[in-house]
Amino acid sequence: MFRKTLxxxxxxxxxxxxPSSVNAGAETNGDKPxxxxxxxxxxxxxxxxxxxxxxxxxxxEKSGKLMLWESDGPVVEVKGVPKVAYGGQGGLGDVIxxxxxxxxxxxxxxxxxxxDGGFGAAVATAKLDSANAVPTLTDVKxxxxxFPKVDGKGHYGxxxxxxxxxxxxxxxxxxxQKFDPAQDMNSNLGKVLRLFPDGSVPTDNPFYDAANPxxxxxxxxxxxxxxxxxxxxxxxxxxxxxxxxHGDELNLVKRSANYGYxxxxxxxxxxxxxxxxxxxxxxxxxxxAFWVPAISPAGLMFYDGAMFxxxxxxxxxxxxxxxxxxxxxxxxxxxxxxxxxxxxxxxREVEQGPDGAVWLLEDGDKGRLLKLTPKAK
Length: 377
Fold this sequence. Notes:
Helices cover 6% and strands 42% of the residues. The chain has helices at 2-17, 101-104, 213-216; strands at residues 34-42, 45-50, 56-61, 65-70, 76-78, 92-97, 106-115, 118-129, 136-145, 157-162, 169-173, 191-195, 218-221, 225-231, 237-242, 248-253, 289-291, 297-303, 314-319, 324-331, 334-342, 347-352, 358-362, 367-374. The chain has a four-stranded antiparallel β-sheet, with no helix packed on it. It has a four-stranded antiparallel β-sheet with strand order 2-3-4-5, with no helix packed on it. The protein has a four-stranded antiparallel β-sheet with strand order 6-7-8-9, with no helix packed on it.
């Protein structure tokens, strides 16, 4: 613990001595290679996804509203969203499109819900009917739930992504601040899950057991609070997750791998108790990159756009407590920290726009939608 405390202290001192930038706004600022334009404002925005062949995006608000934004029109609330358990870290979470959305108009939502035993995350599918003046979700079906529900309102995780071939839905599930469930094979807390798009379980999952449907969902285990999950252009799955106290991680998510929490971590418990570091031969998969001090990661996006050609092949991570935007260069299975921009505000979500611009959602009750474009030379 003494070694780890020294490391954290040194990193905090270095961070405190580094220059900071002014808050993100409509003007370019500092030495950032991008201009920042404020587009709209939302109430506690959490996630976003662009609709294909349009100038529209769906944006979730944590309190339970799904908003339809378009670049040359008003922001409109989408009706028919499932009831969410709003409070703490809970509420409406991720939103993604079915791979064949252009034909079936199906979206996926994650959210916190109440039930027997307390609270847990759920994932639902729905049809987006946007032909009328009031866009509406129809045919809403819950296809997955965290098990078991527990007390408390933290660490839901509930980030979603599809495999590049569109065959599988991956769900990042938090351990709900309960530690041990991340290693419990009879729980889907603290795991990355692999399902078919309808929520059924592939029989070739690594822990498939016809008698144990929860265990059968598991793709990897030992995760804490994964708030971002994304594939790269090589078909590799990555996730980021908040460490306990520092030690935030970027992981290459492999079939059946155990990422160690709460048995190992490059952070420590909030009460000061030590957690053993990752080390060779401990049987756990170490992170490809980690942060001490913490950046409090939120959102994860692989960039392959044309607007910033030098950023192609990079992962982007938002920083909540770190108030930052972080770029990590991906080369095969190697992740190298590249840029760390002080944004002066909590960044909840990072997305690539259809034209290759980078879009951010600012956390908070007046969270801004920000568009990043190359700075004029």
